[in-house]
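Subject: Sanity check before I submit

Could someone independently write out the structure tokens for this chain? I want to compare against mine line by line before I put it in a report. The sequence has 281 residues.
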Amino acid sequence: PYGEHSTVVSQWAAQQDIPCLTVPTLKELVDGSLAWVEDATQLKRWAIPALEYHFLRHTNGLQGVRELLERALSGRLGQSVMGCDSWTYAYLQHAVGLEGVPVLTLQGLEGEQLAHYFSQAAGECPTVYSTRTGKSILTSDSDQKEAYKELQRLAAHCRGHLGIAWHYWRERLREPAEDSDDSDTSQELWLLDALAEAELPTDTGDLATLLLHTLLIHGGLEDHALKHVLPFSDHESLNARFALARRGILSSQQGRWQVAPLSYASVRQLLESRNYLVDPL
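---
Independent answer below. Compare away.
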């Protein structure tokens, strides 16, 4: 999750001049329409940036993706590349079956790898200090293993997920005090020792728990889709979504509600403790 696989696949497809299949509408998914699948029949090569947007956990919502995978694996749809969230993959593997599908997964990152990524992503790498130790964590020329210990803790907390680690990193960075007399502090930043996370209460109810799981396996959903995938009334589902959003557990991205990156660890822990299907990463 939060690994931007859809962006990676979209950019790769554009570079290779490979068309991307149109995302089916909610109505098409609810009706079990195969029109979007038929679009691939005339293409020798095609791509799907985010497979999680091409199905619903609904009576008819799996028909399209099931037909797509069956045709693709039988060789009737040419060559393809599909981006897929790890939670979606775990669910489809259970609900549809993905035996024989070649899979490439980004390896989990360690602290040293995060340090190299953060320094390169920043362009001109600033010096970052730990508020806990006062020592340098990230510098433009540092290759000391001691400096990576702080980032190793971050990598462990985020289970090696680059996208989640990036969000934590950005939220924990702070600039020096404005009244500092040192003219060189413009290239200095401080990393907070801890960041307050939006945690779920231990008495989180079944409705909220199922909603969180549903959002994860779909890569997020719009409000009007909730009634199609949850065994509760529209009113109950929206109230649960409102409550989770107020706590900071959910955030909205392009109109789709999803588990907020800084809440992911506690949400995953809750789902695993209640024996929900979770991703293997």
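---
OP: Matches mine. For the report I'm noting this point. Strands lie at 45-48, 79-82, 127-130, 136-138, 173-174, 188-191, 250-253, 256-259.
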